[in-house]
Write a structure and sequence with these properties.
Layout: H1 3-15, H2 24-31, H3 34-44, H4 46-59, H5 61-85, H6 92-113, H7 116-147, H8 163-176, H9 183-197, H10 203-232, H11 250-268, H12 271-289
Helix pairs in contact: 1-4, 2-6, 3-7, 4-5, 5-6, 5-10, 6-7, 6-9, 6-10, 7-8, 7-9, 7-11, 7-12, 8-10, 8-11, 9-11
């Protein structure tokens, strides 16, 4: 393999939130400015998944077919591990980062399942999680601008002083935990169905992996709702006099709504995304069944 292509492949592997190559990510998100976190979560990390589809699946179908079961195992471990590690994070951005790692596990499983439906679900999850992850980091940054705190156990009672931030944070957190009607729900459901209908694996294997994935989805509301409780409920800042306690301005509301609308739109009408990807997905999957 030429040096340039090999270097690019290594860069893509480093950019994906894949266990055990994920360890740099929470620390990076925890220390970086929230605008950098948005860029990292929305664009750069999705290049790893793009590389798996464009290089592994298209250019190396034989190797991808051999390693697909291991990808699914790694993706399943990733969902459970990151969802279990997220509640223990005191840093708000690190908790969001671990939730991001957990959701990327669905993309890995969708890519490893080698079926039309699962790959469509993985692509939809790439787009969906890009919007949701960027929005959560943006709202974490706006919250930090108000209270100058980043540790969850020091927060509390923000719902009364900043109701607009509270409302948008609640809605996008519900999207992150795959609330029906949001893009995350559709993407994860299609990955589930794609894995079950895949012709590459035995039925008992697919049922076992689906069961473990379901456990990960049950853990998601635990860390997500716990984060919301620690930030917005209680009485810690209820009577505090703080000059930073002003609610979202027009620019911040514009950014939040601009990200929220595609999340709801894709959740209601996912065929818009599928119409753009279905032909290419069929061409890629046909390599594995009609060689």
């Amino acid at each position: 393999m030429p040096y340039v292509k090999r270097k690019r492949l290594i860069e893509w592997q480093r950019q994906i939130e894949l266990i055990p190559l994920h360890t740099w990510l929470p620390d990076t998100h925890g220390e970086a400015h929230y605008s950098t976190c948005m860029l990292l979560a929305r664009i750069l990390l999705k290049m790893g998944a793009y590389g798996l589809v464009r290089i592994n699946m298209e250019l190396l179908p034989r190797a991808h077919s051999l390693f697909a079961p291991w990808l699914i195992i790694v993706g399943t471990i990733q969902i459970i591990y990151a969802a279990s590690a997220s509640p223990g994070q005191r840093n708000l951005k690190k908790r969001i980062a671990y939730s991001s790692i957990s959701h990327m596990g669905f993309i890995i499983i969708g890519i490893g399942s080698i079926s039309d439906m699962s790959l469509n679900g993985a692509i939809l999850q790439i787009i969906s999680h890009g919007f949701i992850g960027a929005a959560l980091f943006f709202l974490a940054g706006t919250s930090f601008d108000r209270i100058r705190l980043v540790y969850l156990d020091e927060m509390g009672g923000m719902a009364i002083p900043v109701p607009k931030i509270f409302t948008t944070f609640i809605i996008l957190s519900m999207a992150s935990l795959a609330l029906p009607g949001m893009s995350g729900f559709v993407a994860e459901l299609i990955v589930f169905l794609g894995l079950i209908t895949s012709q590459k694996f035995f039925l008992i294997t697919k049922i076992l992996i689906t069961f473990v994935m379901a456990i990960g989805m049950i853990l998601t509301p635990i860390y997500s709702l716990s984060m919301l409780r620690q930030m917005f409920y209680g009485y810690k800042f209820f009577n505090a006099q703080n000059s930073y306690f002003f609610d979202s301005g027009p620019r911040e509301l514009f950014v939040s709504i601009s990200i929220l609308l595609p999340v709801i739109g894709i959740g209601i009408y996912p065929d818009f995304v599928f119409s753009l990807s279905v032909d290419k997905v069929e061409d890629i999957i046909s390599i594995y069944f009609y060689r």
